[in-house]
Design goal:
Blueprint lengths: L2 H9 L12 H21 L6 H18 L3 H15 L2 H8 L2 H7 L9 H16 L31 H14 L10 H13 L15 H19 L5 H14 L18 H17 L6 H14 L30 H14 L5 H12 L13 H11 L3 H16 L19 H20 L1
């Protein structure tokens, strides 16, 4: 049986079992082409990528490993298993398509955003949707593969942050309330959520632990899935949420109260602690049964130890900011990122019982450094996002923040070509996250600024 014949059978929907491959070379080529044809049909039909597709991919990798290890019979048998799983994908995808309806029906009300800002958010969502991989990931470094050859975006980030950046993009779609009137982003969201779930290992961790900052990926992925779980009540998310939150609780520094990059280490920082508390709070509010009392008590103790009387909040000690390697290009005095994040952390911990006077002092420190798209080192998209989340607590200060934010962002969003709808990753953390990170983060800022 030739590869062409096999593919023809697949197109006709009659390839339920693996064909009698003559050798490993033929098996590898046939499975590869069958996968590509199946993925193309799923994408063309705008169908969900079923989990069995990801299982088939895993079998393909196992088969290749067995081949390299000269376990030829095992490799051939595993290619058969991969084929069998790929052949189930179309039928399962059509059955799962109904789950998109549930997401559409339960979406939150559309956020109230002024026309120009709403248009900019739509534009950003369109760009993000166009640059998603069919399996659901947003590729930090290679997203431009979706562009025409003669008009490709630049601004790639680092592949180690695909999980965290994909989660940020999902937060953007979720918190926008699907502002697109045709609501066709439900497919992109569910594909992204499925991909995120597939990145969780047996210990509950989302993504690899090979980089220094790997726990950012985990915390942001947990937050995104918690938001989705709250919205959809899709029970498929609950087991992975329980494992993810259990790992966050385990990772907290028992002596110092908060979190940093390693699990259960002695170091803590305000940024990582804020993301972890937000993830735990969102999961708890979504209905995941977790006890956050000790984590909240420890985080509050850490935050108080980092807060100066004038409201400024430090990163690892009072008065410092998280810019350890780029202080010449991005001076610390151009940003109040940790003050903004610390304020969001305080509001998450204390709710309506927060120290109002202290929070207002912190907001005033942020307003001393409003958003400013300038080459003097002021561009800090992380800060602008967290600053926007923080100032919402006070209408007067929120208005003062929103004007420079809109001025900084609306004139800098690309309007033409492959980059249309995105922002250049020229801020302090743009090297890591790239254009996808920049676009998601700034769209989130606009969404929450109103």
């Amino acid at each position: 049986m030739t590869v062409a014949t096999v593919l023809l059978l697949a197109q006709l929907g009659t390839a339920e079992e693996a064909p009698p491959f003559k050798n490993l070379k033929q098996a590898k080529a046939a499975v590869k082409e069958f996968r590509a044809a199946t993925l193309k049909r799923l994408d063309r039909g705008r169908l969900l990528i079923p989990e069995v597709f990801l299982e088939a991919d895993a079998k393909s990798r196992e088969a290749l490993g067995a081949w390299w290890g000269k376990r030829f019979e095992e490799a051939l048998a595993t290619y058969d298993q991969a084929w069998a799983r790929y052949s189930q994908c179309l039928g399962l995808a059509e059955k799962q398509h109904a789950s998109l309806t549930a997401l559409r029906e339960k979406r939150p009300p559309e956020l109230r955003i002024a026309f120009k800002q709403r248009k900019a958010v739509h534009f950003a969502l369109e760009w993000l949707a166009k640059h998603q991989d069919p399996l659901g990931r947003w590729d930090c470094v290679g997203f431009m593969k979706h562009d025409p050859n003669d008009d490709r975006c630049d601004g790639g980030g680092l592949p180690a942050y695909d999980v965290g950046v994909t989660a940020l993009v999902l937060l953007t779609f979720l918190e926008a309330g699907y502002t697109d009137r045709n609501n066709h982003y439900a497919l992109e969201v569910y594909r992204g959520l499925q991909w995120l779930r597939a990145q969780q290992d047996n210990n509950g961790l989302f993504g690899p632990d090979k980089t220094h900052f790997f726990f950012y990926n985990h915390a942001i992925a947990t937050l995104a899935l918690a938001k989705a779980f709250a919205l959809t009540k899709d029970k498929r998310f609950e087991p992975c949420m329980k494992r993810a939150t259990a790992l966050i609780l385990k990772a907290r520094s028992p002596g110092r109260g908060g979190w940093r990059y390693e699990i259960g280490g002695d170091e803590v920082d305000t940024s990582m602690t804020t993301w972890c508390v937000r993830a735990l709070t969102a999961a708890r509010d979504a209905g995941v049964a977790i006890d956050t009392s000790a984590a909240e008590k420890g985080s509050r103790r850490w935050l108080d130890s980092m807060t100066l009387a004038d409201g400024r909040v430090g990163y690892q000690y009072k008065g410092n900011l998280a810019r350890p390697e780029r202080k010449e290009r991005f001076p610390e005095d151009r940003s109040r990122a940790m003050t903004a994040a610390g304020t969001v952390l305080r509001l998450a911990l204390d709710g309506k019982k927060h120290d109002k006077a202290l929070v207002l002092r912190s907001l005033d420190r942020c307003l001393e450094r409003p958003p400013n798209w300038s080459s003097d080192g002021s561009i800090d998209m992380y800060y602008w996002y967290y600053g926007t989340l923080a100032v919402r607590i006070d209408k007067k200060r929120a208005r003062k923040w929103k004007t420079p934010l809109h001025k900084a962002l609306l004139g800098r969003q690309h309007r033409k070509g492959a980059c249309a709808g995105s922002w250049d990753p020229v801020g302090v953390w743009g090297v890591e996250g790239g254009r996808v990170y920049a676009t998601a983060t700034l769209a989130l800022a606009l969404i929450h600024a109103g």
